[in-house]
Design brief:
The chain is of the alpha/beta class. The protein contains 11 helices and 12 strands. The mean pLDDT is about 95. The structure holds pyridoxal-5'-phosphate.
Length: about 375
């Protein structure tokens, strides 16, 4: 069992931060790596051509390890989820009437690209809604998703958990269904990878795209994606020199190459060897790999169990089965409004997010059971 990790962060002593789904606080080790990165550019002579590649390889291995992917070369650096998804969408074509299946109210970076593709190519975007009512909501939402995947489905694009209320999607069953109909499975792992176990080997999606600044504990503007073999011969959205064959040879760069670096490496963002953000991301992933996502889940489960039990006893709704322990939505009993609860939480300096009709609670290893209980008490006494 993980012990509380707050000492690894520089969180202010006042206030309760239950909002890693918004943005993680920075680890001391990550801050240090960033400062060293800045210092490094004091002297460009010390930055050798090899340095443009070496740390990225370390990062690939760390991320591949985290997601149980045997081929680290499938992992690339991206600046944002929208960028990673743009590379996916640029390599998918639809015929009139083909369908792209998503969940309702997904984060826009995994909606807008599909909207655009459907608009341009005559496809239909099908957003599968949860059932009305709270009973078995997560299980029934998963069933609905499976039912929505049919012969005309070309793509299913989802998170592992819903970003707003934490509902966990059964990616194993969904992958099986997509195989039956020959559809791609594209996952936005931003709100789960790092804090919840994910196995590339087990799910075998066609792409996994993650922002780095939440559960991967990294800096902003730096994320990771993993592309499966479907994309190996595809066309990237930008034509940058470093993704072409032999780019390691700086003297020969104008011997222009037709070929890309093999497979997924063509999708890596230009200037991926960012000398400040890259070492930060490496330090962040070293810590995340060391914590282990299953231990983060256990920790979050333990610190939130009592608060959740109390909230349920007082008429608040929280998904029972189909959710992770690091991110959950709280829906209010009828006599309360989000606005009034929000004011009370703000007064107590408790930080959560309000997404749709939910209070989104996102604890991590720097939080305590006592903080979650205080949060629960504010809601119960509202
Ligand atoms: C599920 C999900 N995906 C992606 C993002 C960020 O997207 P982008 O990197 O395109 O800004 C967020 C941010 O909150 C998110 O919650």
């Amino acid at each position: 069992m993980l012990r509380n990790q707050r000492s690894r962060f520089t969180l202010p002593s006042q206030g309760t931060y239950l909002n890693c789904a918004y943005m993680s606080p920075i680890l001391k080790s990550v801050e240090k790596a960033g400062i060293l990165g800045i210092h490094r550019k004091r002297n460009p002579l010390a930055i050798k051509p090899l340095d443009f590649f070496a740390e990225t390889e370390t990062l690939r291995s760390l991320f591949a390890d985290l997601i149980s992917c045997r081929e680290a070369n499938r992992v690339v650096v991206i600046p944002s989820v929208s960028y990673g998804m743009a590379n996916v969408v640029a390599n998918v074509s639809l015929r009139r009437g083909d369908r792209v299946v998503v969940a309702t109210e997904q984060f826009p970076s995994n909606i807008y690209p599909w909207q655009r593709l459907c608009l341009d190519q005559g496809g239909t975007l099908v957003a599968v809604a949860p059932p009305d009512g709270a009973e078995q909501r997560g299980r029934r939402w998963n069933e609905r998703l499976l039912e929505a995947i049919g012969q005309r489905t070309k793509v299913v694009a989802l998170g592992h958990v819903h970003w707003a209320d934490g509902t966990r999607f059964d990616l194993k069953a969904i992958r099986q269904r997509t195989r039956e109909v020959g559809a791609l499975l594209i996952i936005d792992g931003t709100q789960s990878v790092g804090a919840m176990p994910f196995s590339w080997q087990e799910i075998q999606p066609d792409a996994l795209v993650c922002a780095g600044y939440k559960w991967l504990m990294g800096p902003y503007s730096f994320g990771l994606a993993c592309y499966g073999s479907f994309f190996d011969q595809g066309k990237p959205i930008e034509e940058n020199w470093i993704n072409r064959k032999y780019s390691e040879d700086f003297t020969g760069l104008v011997n222009y190459q037709r070929d890309y670096q093999p497979g997924a490496l063509r999708y890596e963002v230009g200037e991926h060897s960012n000398f400040v953000l890259m070492p930060m991301m490496v330090a962040a992933l070293q810590q995340v790999v060391n914590w282990q996502p299953n231990r983060v889940q256990d920790f979050c489960e333990q610190i939130s169990a009592r608060a959740i039990k109390r909230l349920r006893e007082h008429g608040f709704w929280i998904e029972e089965q189909e959710r992770g322990h690091h991110l959950f939505g709280v829906r209010l009993p009828a006599h309360l409004t989000l606005q009034s609860v929000r004011e009370k939480l703000t007064k107590k300096n408790i930080h959560v997010s309000f997404r749709g009709d939910c209070i989104r609670v996102a604890p991590h290893v720097y939080n305590t059971a006592s903080e979650l209980n205080t949060f629960a008490s504010v809601l119960i006494e509202s």
